[in-house]
Amino acid sequence: MLIWRRQPGSLAGLGIVSVAAVLVAVTSSQARGDSRRLVEALRERGLYEEVLYYLETMADSPLVDPEFEEVIDYEAGVTLINAAMTGRVMAEREKRLEQAKTHLERFVKEQPGHPLIFSARSQLANLLVQRGRIEREKADEAESEGARTRHATAARKLLDEAEVVFQEQESQAIEEHERFPKFIDPKQTKQIEERNQVRGDILEARMALGGVKFETALTYPRDSDEFKEVMTEAAERYGKVYELYSTRLVGLYARMWEGRCYKELGDHKRAFDAFEELLEQPADHAAFRALAHRVTALKLETCLLPNVKEYKRAMDRGLAWLDAARGAEGTGVEGLAIRYYTGVAAAEYAKTLNEDDPAESKLRAAAHADARRALEFVARMPGEHQRRARERLAELGIEREEGEPTKFADARDRGKGELDKVQMAGLEPDERAEAAEKALEYFRLAMRLADETVEPDDLNVVRYYLAFLYWMRDDYYRAAVTGEFLARRYPSGIAARQGAKIALAAYAKLFSDATPDQDRQWEIDRMVGIAGFITRRWPDTPDGADAWMMLVRSAVVSEQLDQAREYLANIPDTAPQRGEAELLIGQTLWADYARKLRLPEDQRPDQQELTALVDGAKQVLERGVKRMKEHVEQGGPVTYTLCTAVLSLAQILVNQNDPAGAVQWLDDPVIGAMTLVRDDAEVTDRGAFRVETYKAALRAYVGQKELDKAEAVMEDLEQTIQQQGDADAEQQLTQIYISLGRDLEQQLEMLRSEGKLAEQRDVSKGFELFLERILERPGNTFSSLNWIAETFYGLGAGLDPGGQRLPTDAKAYYGRAVAGYMTILRELRDDPEFGPPRAQRSIQVRLARCLRRLQRYDDALKLLRAILEDEPMVIDAQLEAAYTYQALGAEKPAYYRLAMFGSRKYQQFWGWGRIANRVSRSPQHANVFHEARYNLAHCRMDYALSLSGSERQKTLQRAKEDIRIIQRLFPDMGGEQWAPKYEELYKKIQELLGESPTGLPEREKIEIDD
């Protein structure tokens, strides 16, 4: 029985659970430090020898972190207890417990005020429990009644002593908890942390008390009154913990142990009820999956009991679990248990089928095959079920092909033979997996059989094979630890370099497999450490550059761009990876700039930060592109990464109003994006590369006044889309032109914000000339006319600073846009086939939007009313109507109410509130929902400003509550696009109410125990 606070992987076999792992995270991983995190990760995976080696190394190291140095004895004690729990040789287990006692007693003596002192004392109590368990096992194995009684009595005495300690700890923790006030200010984080730790202490003690009773019950004969009484008490204790903590993972573990108690008592209905209830929990989080694995094993074991015999139920459940198992789950402790019980269930189920009946005979053969497959797998893997699996196979008449090796060399050679099979061509996936598991088993056996006569190089070759096989089966922690051990412990050894590379790759995989909300700093730190080691140890090989390149990729994924640049500095200028890393970082900086530029103006970084970001992207990209161009000129391939980098560089230059520089890269004869597109290079066929190239080239050529080239690009773009043969090609082209207009609008807005008014006018005039040229050409299509109108609108919006006063240039461009939309509507009226389906509605809505910007509100509403009278569900029209009323509200505040709630006179206008209600159940309209709810709150705030006294305050409070409701119902608040807007609006309302603009309060969160 093991109790300790911060080890999610060390769940004891007796129901005592790591409380910090399943209750609340008392301290962050950063506060604990990398050393403790590494120790925990290794211990979770049963790598106890590696942990003890690491602790021994750190104890002698002058570089050890002082905080970690204080807990080395504690960590050693915990590790030894874990090792004792999983050991199979009783004498070795007893030896480890004695060693653990020495370490823990020294920790308690030398660190009496340490926060882990409670856990250390709990661990000392666990030593009593573990010793009691050993005595109980001796009683079970005793041949005489006297010996059985003697060992059982000794076991109960030790368990009673442990129970007294846990009861005292529970009382002390409860008393300490009562000293805290009932309410603690959320700002008092230290006090909250201390209270949470005390709560964990209470729960830890209660779980331990349940475990002690469970273990004590097993010291009595199963048919005795004492067994039933004590096991019932254990079930009740676990039941109380579950009742108090049913919404937390620790409570679910208590429920599991309550179910196990019922199983031991023979109350199988209540046991199954508990297990089924737990298996209904979501299994998308690693902690819940771990619980589900243990519960599944218990359920299968219960199904197999002589007075239950639900063999088919167990077989079906086990096979389903094995099909769904991820990575190394199928070969872990629970995975092997489930395989064993599944195999037994299948074998027993086969016996119930009549082999003379054709249908049942077929089922019998399938069940027998399932049994053999599961049991043979378990028989090859070391563990508590290995011997029993072999016995079952013997009962089925299936003998193992050969005896177990008894020497290191034999086990190694058999492992190598199986590994050779893994690498054979033409092997079926199942056969390859089976050979890999056999190889792993033999190599593990070889390590156990190794003695002082085995040469270190021979051992290290086996370690390398193990690291490789761990990697193959997605057991990345073991692969990383084994590989790093090889590299650091034997840096001159035969497999050191390969071990380091496996370690780096495994840490990188752990990093990439972590979810974005998980702290991945530990994985990054391990990668940095091993990359530095590789660079120092093998400086003249490409491995170091590969390592730093991997780190660059990881930093980019985690959006740590400053860190990515630091890693970049470690890649030599002469390394081929240097250019690739520069391209990756440059494109990421450019993407980050584009994302921030799209933010609302009040949330956008200041211009200095944006300029620094885009200049940094340009500089890094220019270096990388020039470097990679030299590689291409020397015969290297033009990669997609290089193509997209050249395009990104051209886009940056266009946005910075340097069309000449953009054209230089677009038309570069070797790596130019337009050059490659014109040559129909295969590398340009990916994603939207060609379309984005055409868009950038069109803007660049117009900026250079090379209108012939620009028109040719426009024709090529139209031809490219039409040649795709899609039914919605016209619609695709329209969307491309609309996005091009938005890019132009954004560029003009950026130039305006930078005060570059002359450049802004120059860009506008260039596009005006080009649009007039396109208008004059014969045969304009719906798409080209729509693009002309959209671009005129974009030109107007780019020059429009907002507000009631509209600049003359902006007004003129809006007018040209209106004329363009009217032209399209006339063409559609004369020829309904001129545009794609429903084109008229779309153009009418965009015309109404343009009329609103021209402050022609009545014309806009008249047009929208005509649309909505026929089709009230045209959401774009409803949105535009609400925006129009909202704009009118700036002149006459009463219109804000129409924007919020719609019009009674014109009931086809819904207003923001009804729009939100209508789309609330439609996932594809989630963005529209938040757009409506945000503007509802905004209108209410604006309307409140026209009121006075209590009505003003009440309306502002209502606007504030509008946002709080969204926060409660939709925790992500619309994600990156809408959450910042809600937050900023909430602060404005707080200021208007005379409150401190602290923003939205923290939403209460249900802790996911990890």
Tell me what the structure shows.
α22 packs antiparallel against α23. 73% of the residues lie in helices and 0% in strands. The chain starts with 18 loop residues before the first helix and ends in an 18-residue tail after the last helix. The N terminus and C terminus are likely disordered. The chain is mostly helical and 1010 residues long.
What descriptors fit this protein?
single chain, 1010 residues, mainly alpha, 45 helices, disordered N terminus, disordered C terminus
- Low-confidence parts: 1-33, 1004-1010
Mean pLDDT over all positions: 83
- Helix percent band: over 70%
Briefly note the structural class of the backbone: mainly alpha
Beta-strand content: under 5%
